[in-house]
């Protein structure tokens, strides 16, 4: 009589393990960065959730390795001193919009910047249109969809 109970428990355990493995395999990829580190407010109290890149190491990493960026999320690069920033797409997997900011004002947007081709020998660079102390990276086409344009004011809170 104990045998069927043991058999049922073994089958239930196997089904549980297989179900957990299948759920893990098919669940959406975890977000590549912590997009709850800051909030950017713009327009009529519209907001974006952003990851922050404050240190040179965080800035060099940026969104490298991320395969997608949901609408309403981005990465905000904070520079303590205005500079003529130059970005590249090293290890990027997705196209992005680069929003150049000077004292919270959008001074330019470089839209739909493509990731490099595999084994690309040299990487193109993308220069700010003037000195900036902030840069916002969004998914390609998101700046236009969110109505962020030259002259927009973006306020970072963290």
Task: Write structural notes for this entry.
The chain is of the alpha+beta class. It has a single domain, classed as Jelly Rolls (Sandwich), CATH 2.60.120.1140. Helix content is 22%, strand content 37%. It has three helices and nine strands. The protein has helices spanning 2-26, 56-61, 142-145, and strands at residues 38-42, 46-53, 73-83, 86-88, 96-102, 105-113, 125-127, 132-139, 154-157. Strands 6-5-8-3-2-1-9 form a seven-stranded mixed sheet. Strand 5 and strand 6 (105-113) form a beta hairpin. It is globular and about 75 Å long. Mean pLDDT is 86; it is low at 9-13 and 15-30.
Provide a brief overview of the structure.
With 158 residues, the chain is an alpha+beta fold.
């Amino acid at each position: 009589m104990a045998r069927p109970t043991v058999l049922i428990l073994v089958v239930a355990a196997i089904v549980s393990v297989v179900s957990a493995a299948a759920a893990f395999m098919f669940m959406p990829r975890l977000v590549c960065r912590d997009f709850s580190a800051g909030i950017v407010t713009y327009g009529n109290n519209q907001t974006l959730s952003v990851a922050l890149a404050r240190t040179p190491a965080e800035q060099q990493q940026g969104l490298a390795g991320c395969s997608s960026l949901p609408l309403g999320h981005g990465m905000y690069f904070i520079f303590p001193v205005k500079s003529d920033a130059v970005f590249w797409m090293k290890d990027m997997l997705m196209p992005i919009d680069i929003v150049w900011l000077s004292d919270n004002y959008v001074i330019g947007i470089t839209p739909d910047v493509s990731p490099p081709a595999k084994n690309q020998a040299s990487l193109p660079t993308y220069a700010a249109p003037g000195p900036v102390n902030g840069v916002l990276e969004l998914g390609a086409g998101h700046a236009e969809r969110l109505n962020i344009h030259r002259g927009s004011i973006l306020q970072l809170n963290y």
